[in-house]
Automatic annotation (TrEMBL):
InterPro entries: GerMN, Gmad2_Ig-like_dom. Residues 28-71 are annotated as: Disordered. It comes from the Bacteria. Residues 72-170 form the GerMN domain. This is Gmad2 immunoglobulin-like domain-containing protein. Residues 42-56 have a biased composition (Basic and acidic residues). Residues 209-293 form the Bacterial spore germination immunoglobulin-like domain.
Length: 309
């Protein structure tokens, strides 16, 4: 997932630029990923999440007449220099969206095999929103201290994965409080939650690039691969490649809506794949790293597999 990191991004080929999602500097983005401190609900289509936000959406399921909710879940992925970071993935769930999203997170049930969870096996006894707080109730005291082999930094990332996930589902930057079975505030992996845990600054805990589409394992029947996601990169530059195995068959660049702020900005692009033979491919995207890995957090990447029919 983290190879072939370019020092400087150069204009590439085979990219048809798509219009960027105009969000007024992501001011309409209610997600913690945006860095906006006054979340509001957007007006995107109700059957799918917005390109740059975490807003849950409700749509009919394919079976019965029930409803499913699309929720954001922040899983953990590895980076070249910055250690574990959070990557956002949208999934469809049934039932209470807070409970379902927390269940996906703690189980590590990601669609992308590059993502994982830092939670040991198990689940919360309950997850709810109460009086302006997000409340997660422990089933026992097994998660109050760090798991064997878990570092302090990993514990922080694990807690933040829960904070970002539940805030994204609830659409409110409410503090997280973890309670024991008796209803008293307690620690989560040694992190005190009694005063409420807020979301850490996005660029401190999130990957600096995270794909929204294509979904993992998507099929492309036409000649265009639609790409979207969020990121923050030097001079708003992102580089991308389409790979077949180890071979780069297409490459190019995309431009974020911005970069000089403490938040992630949306991007969209349409990649012409009409000349590719049918088969399995990987779309790979990277932030720019003008220091060439010699300082700072370095380049961060994300990728998704897809099939050309």
């Amino acid at each position: 997932m983290h190879t072939r990191l370019p020092r400087t991004l150069l204009p590439g080929v085979a990219l048809v630029a798509a219009g960027l999602l105009v969000l007024g500097g992501c001011g309409d983005d209610p997600s913690p990923a945006s860095g906006d401190t006054s979340p509001t609900r957007g007006t995107d289509r109700p059957d799918r999440p917005g390109k740059g936000d975490d807003r849950p959406s409700v749509a009919p399921t394919s079976e019965g007449g029930g409803a499913a909710t699309t929720v954001p879940v922040y899983f953990v992925g590895d980076t070249e220099r910055a250690g574990p970071r959070l990557y956002r993935e949208f999934q469809r769930v049934d039932g209470d969206p807070l409970v379902a999203a927390a269940g996906l997170l703690t189980a590590g049930d990601s669609l992308d095999p590059d993502y994982r969870t830092l939670f040991p096996g198990g689940a919360f006894a309950a997850v709810s929103y109460d009086a302006g707080r997000l409340v997660a109730t422990l089933a026992d005291d097994g998660w109050t201290t760090r798991a064997p082999g878990m570092s302090r930094s990993e514990a922080r990332v694990a807690v933040q994965s829960l904070v970002y996930t539940l805030q994204g589902v609830q659409q409110e930057r409410a503090p997280l409080v973890v309670e024991d079975a008796g209803g008293s505030p307690t620690t989560l992996f040694g992190v005190d939650t009694s005063g409420g845990v807020a979301a850490a600054p996005p660029l401190d805990v999130l990957s600096h690039v995270s794909l929204t589409s294509p979904e993992e394992g998507a099929s492309v029947d036409g000649g265009t691969l639609e790409v979207s996601g969020v990121g923050n990169s030097f001079e708003a530059n992102l580089g991308w490649e389409v790979r077949r195995g180890d071979e780069v068959v297409l490459d190019g660049y995309a431009t974020l809506e911005g970069w000089m702020e403490e938040k992630l900005f949306p991007f969209e692009a349409s990649v012409d794949v009409s000349g590719l033979e049918p088969g399995d491919y990987t779309f790979w995207v990277t932030t720019d790293d003008p220091a060439g890995g010699t300082e700072g957090v370095g380049a961060m990447t994300d990728d998704r597999s897809f099939t050309v029919g």
